[in-house]
Amino acid sequence: MEKKVIIKINNLVKTYGEGEALSYALNDVSLDIYEHDFLVILGSSGCGKSTLLNMIGGMDKVNSGSIIVEDEDICKYNDKKLTLYRRDTVGFVYQFFNLINDITIYQNVTLSPSSRKKQRALKLLERVGLLEKKDKFPRQVSGGQQQRVAIARALNKDSDILLCDEPTGALDDVSGKAVLKLLEEIHSEGKTIILVTHTKEIAQMANRIVTMKAGKIVSDVINENIVKAEEVEW
Q1: Torsion sign across C-alpha atoms 128, 133, 136, 141
Q2: pTM given for the model
Q3: Residue 110 lies in domain
Q4: Distance (Å, rounded) from C-alpha 157 to C-alpha 3?
Q5: How many domains does the chain have?
Q6: From CA 167, how far away is CA 203, in angstroms rounded?
């Protein structure tokens, strides 16, 4: 059975500066992302991988090209539609957690007046092993625990697509593996995960590895030897 394309990226260009100072963050990037992919975008710092992730997440505007999600080009969305897209369609996990420090862990996961999402938040905190920390503030727990809170927050949107920007970059090995194990479980339950990293060992968890260099995709391969989270060493 042919896999369904859920994000179609066509000829994406993103530049900064002008004249002699013009630089390409993305230079004619095209990519199909399929339902239930665990796709890693791999590359060194400055290659354009985080820029591409931000474009998929509706966090930044392109110079030209298109990103088709659910038959609509999000590059043509106004600010209001982009806000709704970020709220309803994608969950985002950042390298440095992006939690709100002056509200509790539970409040960080809900960030919604919906009673359904408040109840779901408790279940998600239990799943990530932090239910007993729900009334703590982010600064009162470890970095690995903060990242698990961030994942619970992203999952509370109940979106099908999870975008992860170097989610283990600020963590030690033990905490990093715990986060990778959680992402592995989430993917096995049907979510599409797009993860940005510069670490080749982490990329081996993915079923598909896209490598970028200087704003371009230089390879897009199916990973035939997927490694389990607990086996990843970096």
Answers
A1: negative
A2: 0.89
A3: 35-64+79-231
A4: 24
A5: 1
A6: 12
The DSSP string of 33-77 is EETT-EEEEE--TTSSHHHHHHHHTTSS--SEEEEEETTEEGGG-
**3-state SS assignment for residue 173:** helix
Contact 232, 177 (CB under 8 A): yes
* Backbone Cα Rg of the chain: 18
Measure CA of the first residue to CA of the last residue in the chain; give whole Å. Answer: 35
Chain position carrying tokens 């035939």: 224
Provide the 3-class DSSP secondary structure of residue 18. coil
Rounded to whole angstroms, how far apart are CA atoms 154 and 110?
A: 10
CATH code, 160: 3.40.50.300
CA atoms 6, 27, 187, 94: torsion sign: negative
In a domain, 163, yes or no: yes
pLDDT in tens, the chain (234 residues): 678 999 999 999 999 988 888 999 999 999 999 999 999 999 999 999 999 999 999 998 899 999 999 899 999 999 999 999 998 899 888 877 788 999 999 999 987 545 566 778 888 898 888 899 999 999 999 988 998 898 888 888 878 899 999 888 878 888 888 889 989 999 999 999 999 999 999 999 999 999 999 999 999 999 999 999 999 887
